[in-house]
Design goal:
This protein is α+β, with helices and mostly antiparallel strands and 97 residues long. Helix content is 32%, strand content 36%. It contains 2 helices and 5 strands. The chain has a 5-stranded antiparallel β-sheet, sandwiched between helices. The longest helix is centred in the first third of the chain and has 16 residues, at 13-28. The radius of gyration is 12 Å and the shape is globular.
Length: 97
């Protein structure tokens, strides 16, 4: 698993999540992405199945108005990858109080 991301103001997080998946499509030979329900208003997530070094991977991107988080997972389903990205994101991205 690989996790990376960035913080900063995002005016259109839904579009940013799609753009990030599109940007990574060539690197990971991604198929069509699907929206994943985050259950959080203003947070958008997309996942797509692809390949890296001959292995099957799932790339998931989560974006809200302040961050963009991307995870590359092996040996997991799209649903499991989406849930794991959400869990990891909650531990890594801590809003200022």
């Amino acid at each position: 698993m690989t996790l990376f991301g960035s913080t900063g103001l995002r005016l259109s997080p839904e579009s940013d999540a799609k753009s990030e998946i599109d940007r990574l499509a060539g690197d990971y030979a991604l198929k069509e992405s699907v929206a994943v329900d985050t259950g959080v208003r203003g947070r958008y997530e997309r996942c797509a199945v692809g390949r890296a070094d001959g292995d099957s991977v799932v790339v998931c991107v989560s974006a809200d108005h302040g961050s963009l988080t991307t995870g590359v997972f092996t040996r997991l389903s799209v649903d499991d990858s989406g849930r794991l990205l959400d869990d990891l994101r909650q531990r890594v991205v801590v809003p200022k109080s």
